[in-house]
Design a protein that fits this description.
mainly beta; 4-stranded mixed beta sheet; 4-stranded antiparallel beta sheet; 15 strands
């Protein structure tokens, strides 16, 4: 009495899910960056171009899966990724095959909602503009030159995890790393974006 017996086969476990983001500028035009994706040898429908991403792809079970990026019929990136039940991942295809190799940056996605009045944003440095990692270091700044969340000297391949910030409109820029943060030349002027509640 008072106990509920649940057969083990009935317990629900959230299946692993993965999305793929294409941020590998390996060609001179956007159309030439088109790729297909394969998971364990099975080519997925549709194609991706630079700056596009898939929806979350549900996988049948936790384990190791071979993810391949196929460009022009050839395999551009091939690597196994371990996934866990209930842990959503983003696999970012990064590199330009000139300064930096084509590879995956695997990111864990925290999809829990922040406290009311806040939003979440993640910053990942996937711009392979130099061969030497030290030469890729940047500062993440506001337009008026203030450092964001201590993000000075961020190298290629680094990511912040999810930052919880108050809802607001944010206007940021990426500058070359300098002794005095945010005093270097602007490398990327990020369009202003609204961080929404939740």
């Amino acid at each position: 009495p008072g106990l509920l017996a649940v057969p083990l086969g009935v317990l629900e476990v959230t299946p692993p899910q993965v999305r793929v983001v294409h941020v590998a500028p390996f060609a001179s035009t956007i159309s030439m960056t088109q790729v297909n994706l394969a998971v364990d040898g099975q080519v997925l429908p549709g194609a991706l171009k630079y700056l596009e991403s898939t929806d979350y792809i549900p996988l049948p079970a936790a384990g190791s899966y071979l993810f391949e990026v196929l460009a022009g019929g050839a395999t551009a990136i091939s690597d196994s990724v371990v996934v866990e039940a209930g842990v959503p991942l983003t696999i970012a295809a990064i590199g330009d095959n000139a300064n930096q190799p084509l590879e995956y940056l695997v990111l864990t996605d925290d999809l829990t909602a922040p406290e009311s009045g806040n939003g979440k944003v993640r910053i990942a440095h996937a711009a392979p503009f130099a061969a030497n990692i030290d030469d890729t270091k940047v500062d993440i700044c506001t337009q008026d030159g203030n450092l964001v969340a201590g993000l000075a000297g961020v190298p290629y391949g680094a990511e912040t995890g999810f930052l919880t910030l108050p809802i607001n409109t944010y206007d940021l820029k990426v500058t070359a790393a300098a002794v005095t943060p945010c005093s270097g030349d602007t490398i990327i002027d990020i369009p202003a974006f609204e961080l929404q509640d939740g």
